[in-house]
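Session log. Operator J.P. requested a structure for one protein chain; no other inputs attached. Running the standard single-chain path with token output.
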Amino acid sequence: MRPQAFRQIPGSLRSRICPSLAQLPIGRRRHNRGSVPVCAGFLPDADQIVSAADTLGGLASGNAKGLQGISESIRSATETLGAYLPWPLADPEVQLGVDLANIVALQPQWPGVLRLLAIYYILLLRPSPFLGVLDFYVLVPFSKLIQRRYQVADLTLRDRLGSGNFGQVFEGIKNKNGKRIIGNQLTKEEKKRRVVLKRVNLDGSVLRSNFLKAGTMARGAGETGVAEAYMCSRIMRDPLVRQCVAEYQGEFIADASDGGFTKGTQWLVWKFESDSTLGDALSGSLGGRFPGCLEEIVLGRVRENVDSEKRDTAIIRTVLKRVLIAIKRLHSLGIVHRDVKPDNILITAGGNIKIIDFGAAADLCTGLNFSPGQGFLDPRYSPPEELVLPKRFPKAPFPAAAAIISPLAWQIGRPDLFDAYSAGVLLMQMAVPELRAGSALRGFNQGLADCDYDLQEWRNTKGYRFNFDILDRKGSSGWDLARKLICRRNSVNRGRLSAGDALRHRFFLPEF
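Structure written below.
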């Protein structure tokens, strides 16, 4: 018989089972709380077992009394708060408090549990159905009432900064006292009034009046401009997410053909924060080799006494971390960017990393700009599935219904993993010097597809001559992160790290 089992048997019964052990003499063992009587062989007697049981029972009773006290405190606080709330809110608040108190006291009731789960689903899950409905049906109309309405006479159009599939981007200046800026040299005061203007391309497509209310996929450049304006406006209403994107200031339709503006064209306006992107840094357009050209901007100083490879790793780690934070915050609203790439990552003079260009973004909380089987993408940064949700997903319903089911759709389809793959390609492009050119990146994607998106196989067969020193530092932490971002999803739409998961990877631990 095992000693543990034997020691729980009363002495009279123990003597019947094993007389030899029952006759063992009683000794005393020293303990930090005094002397404890034990049998030879260190087997406790029945009195010790009873004493231990009483002690455990006392602890359990104490815990139960503690939970009961917490439960009563919740009830009391709920009733006190309910006395100060308006009558439509008082009764529900008290009821929820009672439900929570019952659970804390380990006396749950099914109606109360279901009510609390419903509150958790509607308010606390991301993307939040409540916040989605509130934003779309209340805050969107309100923001349109209070946003500034620009006119052609309010702005001076200057140099073109870039162009894309749906529009052209210009530098502009807000006019002061209706006077346009003349000349190329700007004063400090004039520089503070600079803005970024995006002219939405005219492609002859018809702009549907109910496009936003229907919550459907944008058709043509005009509706894409409307969708981007909606995305930027929604982001600006979240104090945390707005820190990670360019500051949006509104849209307008040109009321005259003057100064480079054409009457009837659609324009979007942002605060001018920088004209430098990560793409410029990768190409060497910022006056030095990448990533060294960003050291002072991103890290705030130049560490000349530190090993160059360690410095480069620190810069890349910092840039990628800030990109992932921005992506994670966007996803908390239910917005998937779908076009994360160096040209859409702004680097400000203060070292901030901001994501721009939301023309391809989809709001999967309200279903805006989403349709199964369709999507915008850059093949150099797009994952193999090419769509944010599987093709079998139904078409998004009207925004209110889409918001209600969005947490379920998000958990089942994991659309956030689309942007996570793009971040993985971004890591490879920054860390592997041979991949920083656009042509090399296209070859990388082709080779990766040939290897069925197995990054390790690609390295062994096609990339074995490349420089992976940065990714191989710290026990190949960077390479491990890249492999977990650049891969296929599995049958349940998992198998790839999300932005939030990636931020917890050991690659971001400090290197001493």
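Operator note: The chain has three domains: 3-121, 145-271, 278-508.
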